[in-house]
C-alpha cells in the first residue's frame, strides 16, 4: 500500500517551482534601485537608507484585491491583465495621501498550480508595478485543493509608499473655492463586478464572446479592460502645482469616495453635464433596469481619480494631465456646507 503524500493530497510542489521560474523574467522588470537581492528569498528587501532624504518620512500602506473580476478572467482563460487591476487598486490608494509607491507583494491562492497561468498573473502584476513606478519585491502562491476548484484562483496584494509628513494630502487642506478635477477611468476598473456580471450574464444572457457595437469589441474584452494606474500622474501633479487632496474612485462610487476627503464644514458639488460615461455604464443601467442612484454608488461611472486643487492651480493641473495623456476636466467645486446635509452631491444630467 502506498502511503499518503502531499502530491496525492493535491499539492504539486514541482509545479510551484516551475511557476517561479516562469515569472522571474517579469518580476525582474518591476524593480527599483533600492531593491536588495532577487526573487526566491523568504522576504523581499528594500534599502530604507533611501528615505534619509526625507525630514520626517511617513510610511503609507494599503492592501486590496480585484474582487469578482477574476471570474471573468477565468471564464475567458486570459490571466495576463488581472494583475494590473491588482496594482491599480493598491498603489492608487497610497497616492491619495501624496505617498510615492515604493514596493508591493502579492498573494495568489489557487485550486491547482498551473505554472503558465500563475506566471501570466504575475506578468500583469509586474507590468502594473512598472506603470506605477514601484517594485515587486516578493509574493506567495498557495495551492488549496478542496477549497478552490482546479481552475479557480484569487489574488491580493499589499503595497508600501512614503510621503513627507508636512506634505500629506487630505481633508484638512481643502478650502472653500477649491476646484474638483476628474481623471477619466479606462472602464469599469475593478469594482461593481458582482452587479455587472449579474446584469450581463444572468439578466441579459450575453456571452463573453458577443460582439457589442457600442464597445467596438467583445463583451469579454470590455470587461477585462485593465484598471488605469494613476500614481505617477498624481505625483506629477504634486510636483507641478498645488494639490490639496486626491480621491481614488473605487467601490462606493464617485460621491461616496470623494466624501472621504471632504471636511465636515464643506460641500463638493459635482456636475454630471461635464462628462459622458462610457457605453458600458449605460448598458448596465439599461439591461438591468438599474436606477441611477444604484449605478452611481456602485460603479465609477467613468471617473477613476479625482484631484481637489485651489482655483489658481486648475490650468497647470489640466495641462500636466494632458501632457501625460490623461483625459481630465473640471468636475465641480467646493463651498461651505450651508444647508447641504451631504458632503458631496451630483447635479445635472450627462450629455445625451
Automatic annotation (TrEMBL):
Positions of the PurM-like N-terminal domain: 54-163
Entry keyword annotation includes Calcium: no
Domain PurM-like C-terminal positions: 175-341
Keyword Cytoplasm attributed: yes
Annotated EC: 6.3.3.1
Domain of life: Bacteria
Compartments, as annotated in UniProt: Cytoplasm
Record Pfam families: AIRS, AIRS_C
InterPro entries linked to this entry: PurM-like_C_dom, PurM-like_C_sf, PurM-like_N, PurM-like_N_sf, PurM_cligase
Keyword annotations: ATP-binding, Cytoplasm, Ligase, Nucleotide-binding, Purine biosynthesis
Pathway where this protein functions: Purine metabolism; IMP biosynthesis via de novo pathway; 5-amino-1-(5-phospho-D-ribosyl)imidazole from N(2)-formyl-N(1)-(5-phospho-D-ribosyl)glycinamide: step 2/2
Major subcellular location class: cytoplasm
Reactions catalysed: 2-formamido-N(1)-(5-O-phospho-beta-D-ribosyl)acetamidine + ATP = 5-amino-1-(5-phospho-beta-D-ribosyl)imidazole + ADP + phosphate + H(+)
Record family assignment: Belongs to the AIR synthase family.
Matching NCBIfam families: purM (TIGR00878)
Protein name as annotated: Phosphoribosylformylglycinamidine cyclo-ligase
Organism: Streptomyces thermolineatus
Native organism taxonomy: Bacteria, Bacillati, Actinomycetota, Actinomycetes, Kitasatosporales
Gene name as annotated: purM
Amino acid at each position: 500500500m502506498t502511503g499518503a503524500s502531499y502530491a496525492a493530497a493535491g499539492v504539486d510542489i514541482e509545479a510551484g517551482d516551475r511557476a517561479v521560474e516562469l515569472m522571474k523574467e517579469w518580476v525582474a522588470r518591476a524593480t527599483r534601485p533600492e531593491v536588495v537581492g532577487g526573487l526566491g528569498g523568504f522576504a523581499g528587501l528594500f534599502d530604507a537608507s533611501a528615505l534619509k532624504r526625507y525630514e520626517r518620512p511617513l510610511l503609507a500602506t494599503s492592501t486590496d484585491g480585484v474582487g469578482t473580476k477574476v471570474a471573468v478572467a477565468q471564464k475567458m482563460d486570459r490571466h495576463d491583465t488581472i494583475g494590473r487591476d491588482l496594482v491599480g487598486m493598491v498603489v492608487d490608494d497610497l497616492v491619495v495621501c501624496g505617498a510615492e509607491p515604493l514596493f508591493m507583494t502579492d498573494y495568489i491562492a489557487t485550486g491547482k498550480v498551473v505554472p503558465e497561468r500563475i506566471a501570466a498573473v504575475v506578468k500583469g502584476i509586474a507590468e502594473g508595478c512598472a506603470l506605477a513606478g514601484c517594485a515587486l519585491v516578493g509574493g506567495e502562491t498557495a495551492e488549496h485543493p478542496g477549497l478552490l476548484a482546479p481552475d479557480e484562483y484569487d489574488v491580493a496584494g499589499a503595497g508600501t509608499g512614503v510621503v513627507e509628513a508636512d506634505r500629506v494630502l487630505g481633508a484638512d487642506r481643502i478650502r472653500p473655492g477649491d476646484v474638483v478635477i476628474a481623471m477619466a477611468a479606462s472602464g469599469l476598473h475593478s469594482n461593481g463586478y458582482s452587479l455587472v456580471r449579474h446584469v450581463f450574464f444572468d439578466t441579459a444572457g450575453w456571452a463573453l464572446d458577443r460582439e457589442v457595437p457600442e464597445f467596438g469589441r467583445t463583451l469579454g474584452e470590455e470587461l477585462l479592460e485593465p484598471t488605469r494606474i494613476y500614481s505617477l500622474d498624481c505625483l506629477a501633479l504634486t510636483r507641478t502645482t498645488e494639490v490639496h487632496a486626491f480621491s481614488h474612485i473605487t467601490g462606493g462610487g464617485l460621491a461616496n469616495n470623494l466624501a472621504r476627503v471632504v471636511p465636515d464644514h464643506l460641500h463638493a458639488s459635482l456636475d454630471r453635464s461635464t462628462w459622458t460615461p462610457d457605453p458600458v455604464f449605460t448598458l448596465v443601467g439599461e439591461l438591468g433596469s438599474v436606477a441611477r442612484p444604484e449605478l452611481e454608488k456602485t460603479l465609477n461611472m467613468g471617473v477613476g481619480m479625482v484631484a481637489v486643487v485651489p482655483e489658481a492651480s486648475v490650468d497647470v493641473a489640466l495641462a500636466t494631465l494632458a501632457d501625460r495623456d490623461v483625459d481630465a476636466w473640471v468636475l465641480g467645486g467646493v463651498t461651505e456646507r450651508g444647508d447641504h446635509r451631504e458632503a458631496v452631491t451630483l447635479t445635472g444630467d450627462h450629455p445625451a
